[in-house]
Amino acid sequence: MSSVMEELLAESKIEKLKEGSVISGTVMEIRPTEVVIDFGGKAEGAIPAHEFLDLSELEIGSDIEVFLERLEDRDGNPQLSFDKAEQKKNWEKIVNTCEEGSVITGRVRTKVKGGLVVNIGVDAFLPSSQVDIQAPKNLDQFVGQTFDFKVVKINRERKNIVVSRRELIEERRQDKKREILTGIKPGETRRGMVKNITDYGAFIDLDGLDGLLHITDMSWGRISHPSEMVKTGEEITVCIIEVDQKRERVSLGLKQLSSNPWDDIEGKFPINAKVRGKVVNLVPYGAFVELEEGVEGLVHVTEMSWTKRITKPGEVLNVGDEVDAVVLGIQKEDQKISLGLRQLDVNPWDMATHNYPPGARVRGKIRNLTSYGAFLELEEGIDGMVHVSDMSWTRKINHPSEMVKKGDEVDAIVVEVDIDNQRISLGMKQLTDDPWQEIDRLFRMGDVVSGKVARVAGYGAFIELEHDIDGLVHISQISEERIEKVKDHLNEGDEVKARVIKIDRDERRIGLSIKAADYDEDALAKEVASYDESGEDLTTSFGDLFDQATAESDD
């Protein structure tokens, strides 16, 4: 045949080739990156090697069907595709044999925007949200792998198929979940993987069934967060505590794998036993001490020292300290142990009665003042209190600061010792005799006395006399003339001379008269009689009068 005829036949054959059709071609060469095909065109075509599942299955000289995309591109080369030929041939087959909801095997071909392309005979789209239970961050890891997929949607007009791997996994997990729920029993142990950790516990994947390991079931001891016991992704052994078939819930435990340390608590930590532990927590009212794993005791602030006034446990203890203590009490049902630190030392109050018997004279520094008295430090941790009523035999003391100030060194007499309540009552006035016991010797009716004005009130003035005794000059006893205001005639600090016109031992009061200081005996007798009849200084207690005078002078 002439060359002209051959050319005409070749051109005739090429004219029969149609772009977009499936044609037959012969494998001419197999290269690492492409396969060369002779399909009867002007030039041989090359198909990328990744379009073939296995290059080893191809043989040089064998015929295969390919898809002719273009006879010539810009460079004059033909564009062929083995993959599209397969898809074109398989589309009808897939559509006819596969329906929505069915399961089909496919190979992930490549990653595209929003998901993956899966070859199930034709290209199907796998959205990233449907790849796994949780959308993976890296889709490249799935390329080249073969999985089962569930057909979610088939669009015949657009010739596309959407598949899901997630739905298939969830269905199979649900089946396995039901299977596990049916066979699982409380008291069993199972292996599982820590799937998720929350503030209240951890969710454990029991090979398809999630169980909750609550924080209270992780340890017999104290933990503040589940992450102290387990880590995400960790495989652990757990105990099945409870199975709720209806709600498909399983409660798990870790601490149940070991014995409860509180079962034999009285035997391990008997009352009055000396124990050692570590401070694990400080609270406003005390410190928690771990005696062993799962067993903690509380040292209340009141049990930390016999003598020191501890307001916060942090003043004497720190978290992590190793301490010795004494067991004071056990409440097994509530899992509570009371501990004491001070019981390791001798209680100084046990010797208080011996060291400070009633009537003994003591000396100490004023440590604190309150509205009702002064606290005298007798030794470290032991105070005695001098009540305001025990500061003076003769004066009404409204506040201890009238007699002492903080830091003063003072003497006192022990009045009473209360060991049970750890109180010692002291008195300052008991250092001297009560002048009112011998008032008749110190002051007599009609005596002319001198003194200083201590307080001025609306009804009169208080005069400081000898022997630390005060007398009251009523407003009517200041002058012969009628007086409207005491302050117009007397002021604090004024030196005055007066006459004793009233002595009341029972009420511990002395009535004075300035105007009668120079009276003769007859005039004095009349004034005393008049004073007694009026009862002006007898209507109110002396202490109340003194309080009122103090308030008025403050105003």
Concise account of the structure shown:
The chain is an alpha+beta fold and 555 residues long.
Q: How would you characterize this protein structure?
A:
The structure is a single chain. The strands form 6 sheets. Strands 3-2-1-4-5 form a 5-stranded antiparallel β-sheet. A 5-stranded antiparallel β-sheet has the order 8-7-6-9-10. The radius of gyration is 53 Å and the shape is elongated. By secondary structure, it is of the alpha+beta class. It is 16% helix and 37% strand.
Strand count, sense and closure of the main sheet?
5 strands, antiparallel
Specify Rg, calculated over alpha carbons.
53 Å
Give the spatial strand order of the biggest sheet: 3-2-1-4-5
Helix tally equals: 8
Proportion of beta-strand residues = 35-45%
Distance between the termini: 144 Å
Structural class: alpha+beta
Give the beta-strand count: 30
CATH-defined architecture of the largest domain: Beta Barrel
Low-confidence stretches: 537-551
CATH homologous superfamily identity of the largest domain: Nucleic acid-binding proteins
Q: Could you say how many structural domains there are in total? A: 6
